[in-house]
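Help needed: design a sequence for this.
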């Protein structure tokens, strides 16, 4: 018999993506099906009506129940666009061109800013361009999107992040002062401390392998495990009114060779790090793996 009407979706190269029958009532409903089939988040799907005009369809647009031919474009920009609008501190944040974020009206000690869309699968490379760091800075991944805003300080974040260190400090403490890998609320390993302006943190994330690697100005700093099977948001932490961070998402193959290789090598053991929060305790010298903790400063 005759095949039932369907929504046929193809990629830009002409390859078949999915055939959905019966035809969903709206574009939003079709996107939900495509997310289940392809793994591509709804927020990253752009559907165009197939034909001469190739018109971009809105989520509320109705689909012809007698059949539809569509093109699907994957747009990963929401994974690298700061979500200022839904941030609890949105009234004091300033976003420019999606990737730039500042906080010139900062009235609290800090504010955490997350991306619009989390990472769910695949391999992704990001660059944090540090245009200005006033005091301290964290850049990396968080699992809990409720940490956006000013309720969770840097050392209490459930995060996997490059801690930039404290500007102007000569401290060798990996908890408070010197650059380090801060992962799962522990200071794991010393990383290079950043300058106030101009450094670029690279972050390569492999959701399938459950690993993240960080580099600074193209030089590998280290890699560690991350949770698997859960969404992870890219985040940054603004600490002063002059802070200015730009987030970029270059192609994965643009990551430095050492950073790419690090994900398949031995990962740092985050269980051996220093606790970031707890009773005041003098941290051991840089590079030590002795147990210890320090008070939460930021």
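Sure. Designed sequence:
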């Amino acid at each position: 018999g005759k095949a039932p009407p369907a929504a046929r979706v193809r990629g830009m190269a002409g390859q078949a993506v999915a055939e959905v029958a019966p035809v969903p009532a709206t574009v939003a409903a079709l996107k939900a099906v495509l997310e289940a089939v392809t793994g591509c988040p709804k927020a990253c799907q752009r559907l165009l009506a197939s034909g001469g005009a190739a018109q971009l369809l809105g989520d509320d647009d109705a689909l012809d129940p007698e059949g539809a031919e569509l093109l699907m474009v994957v747009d990963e920009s929401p994974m690298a666009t700061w979500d200022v609008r839904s941030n609890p501190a949105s009234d004091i944040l300033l976003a420019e061109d999606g990737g730039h974020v500042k906080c010139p009206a900062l009235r609290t000690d800090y504010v955490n800013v997350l991306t619009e869309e989390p990472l769910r699968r695949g391999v992704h490379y990001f660059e944090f361009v540090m245009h200005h760091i006033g005091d301290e800075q964290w850049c990396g991944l968080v699992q809990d999107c409720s940490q956006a805003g000013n309720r969770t300080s840097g050392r209490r974040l459930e995060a996997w992040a490059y801690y930039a260190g404290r500007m102007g400090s000569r401290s060798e403490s990996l908890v408070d002062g010197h650059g380090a890998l801060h992962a799962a609320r522990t200071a794991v390993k010393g990383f290079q401390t950043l300058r106030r302006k101009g450094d670029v943190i690279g972050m390569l994330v492999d959701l399938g392998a459950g690993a993240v690697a960080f580099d600074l100005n193209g030089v590998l700093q280290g890699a560690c495990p991350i949770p698997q099977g859960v969404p992870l948001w890219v985040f940054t932490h603004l600490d002063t009114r002059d802070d200015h961070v730009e987030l970029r998402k270059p192609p994965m193959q643009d990551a430095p060779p050492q950073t790419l290789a690090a994900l398949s090598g031995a990962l740092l053991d985050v269980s051996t790090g220093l606790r970031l929060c707890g009773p005041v305790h003098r941290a051991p010298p840089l590079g030590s793996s002795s147990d210890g903790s320090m008070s939460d400063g930021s």
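The longest strand covers residues 123-132.
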